[in-house]
Request: fold
Amino acid sequence: MDPNKYKRHEPEEPEHLNCRVCLKEIPSSAAHTAEGVDYIYHFCGVECLEEWKQKEKRDEGPLNHPEDV
Ligand SMILES: [Zn+2]
Reply:
């Protein structure tokens, strides 16, 4: 019998994410995602996703779609 066997309690936390734009907490099942360079961003909704896209465009300049204005 190993007394340590049942000692290790890992709390099962539900996976919660924070919206990249408004920092609101969102359940992972309801999150909108966008893949960054080496990271996946999460958003509470399409509105925040679009807002983030606009910001990214402004920050990085028109690299990908120069004619998409
Ligand atoms: Zn949001």
